[in-house]
Specification:
Elements lengths: L1 E5 L8 E5 L9 E11 L1 H8 L15 E9 L11 E4 L12 H4 L14 E5 L3 E3 L6 H4 L2 H13 L9 E5 L3 H12 L3 E6 L2 H9 L4 E4 L6 H8 L5 E6 L6 H7 E9 L12 H5 L3 E4 L5 H13 L6 E6 L3 H10 L5 E5 L1
Parallel strand pairs: 8-9, 8-11, 9-10, 11-12, 12-13, 14-15
Antiparallel strand pairs: 1-2, 3-4, 3-6, 3-15, 4-5, 5-7
Helix pairs in contact: 4-5, 7-8
The chain binds NADP nicotinamide-adenine-dinucleotide phosphate (NAP).
NADP nicotinamide-adenine-dinucleotide phosphate binds next to α1, α4, α5 and β9.
Amino acid sequence: MRAYHIEKTGEISGLKQVDLPQPTAGHGEVIVRVKACSLNYRDLMVIKGQYNPKMPVPRIPLSDGAGEIVEVGPGVESLEKGDRVAGCFMPGWQASGCDNAAQRTALGGEADGMLSEYVKLPATGVVKFPEHLSFSEAATLPCAGVTAWHAILSGKPALPGHTVLLLGTGGVSIFALQFAKLAGARVVVTSSSDDKLNFAQKLGADFTVNYRKDPDWDKTVLQWTGGVGVDHVVEVGGAGTLPKSINAVRMSGHIALIGVLSGTGDFNPISILMKSINVRGIYVGSREMFQSMNKAISVNELKPVIDRSFKFEEAPKAYEYLASQNHLGKIVIEM
Ligand SMILES: NC(=O)c1ccc[n+]([C@@H]2O[C@H](COP(=O)([O-])OP(=O)(O)OC[C@H]3O[C@@H](n4cnc5c(N)ncnc54)[C@H](OP(=O)(O)O)[C@@H]3O)[C@@H](O)[C@H]2O)c1
């Protein structure tokens, strides 16, 4: 079967197409014929060696993929050949809190991932996806979709009438926009691009700010909320944006700490206590969250936003496109 290996970390050129033996299903396992994968910012960090500098290579990359079950191992009763499934980001995280053992199962990082024609997964590490979605659409769900679901609707959910602040228009933020609108919240989106902000408005954004043109975007957002601040922030920027997110959130508001897009920066935690802010670290989500999200996606016939699809042979180009940050929403690789 065809697959990709990260043979060397550091550059995208470390990604090489290889021929590997096709896996067979053991007890409790299924074989999925992968039809589509999607890319996340994490995949760039993995190939550059920034995610886990000690990651052993070669490694099959990508956490996110969807396909059809072609073989069911002994002891598997919940799934059958022909089922359309997506892999879970951490096949070992079923429900409630995450632990070290579950983290070690994360696909495309700690374990081999989905950029392969066939993958072997535990039956408990896949979910059936909504019928109205294509394989490409389903392939966008495991990391960005579940993370956004976790941030917006799990734990401390956004409620009707709440205000949610989203940074940028990448995969997590666009899913968060869609879920926040499902929840009946008002949504603020920031972006470096006016074109992307126009698109975000079409998806339901109530207020938009270009963070390049308006470096004091936190003050602009605060003003828009009448000086009160937003109820929730989906913080994908990290140290470089966190002080402004803290400024833009209300007293006793919520910040879901998710990403590191803006690199490093100085950070003084005093406002967190002075404003009694609830800061919650999020690492994707469990299989149970994935299943809850799928129900909501089905009932609301929600469609993930795919910016561009690449062919399997073009995987390195898909990585380059992700690195350019010209995309809005998700980038897909079709097998
Ligand atoms: N903790 C977790 O479980 C988890 C899960 C998923 C992702 N993440 C993290 O969350 C972040 C987003 O991931 P993703 O896959 O959605 O990324 P992505 O699709 O690559 O998003 C890239 C977009 O982020 C925006 N951006 C970049 N720098 C920014 C800044 N300084 N301020 C505001 N927006 C900025 C840009 O949007 P515009 O072009 O509109 O400006 C850019 O196009 C990454 O750091 C990723 O590692 C964490």
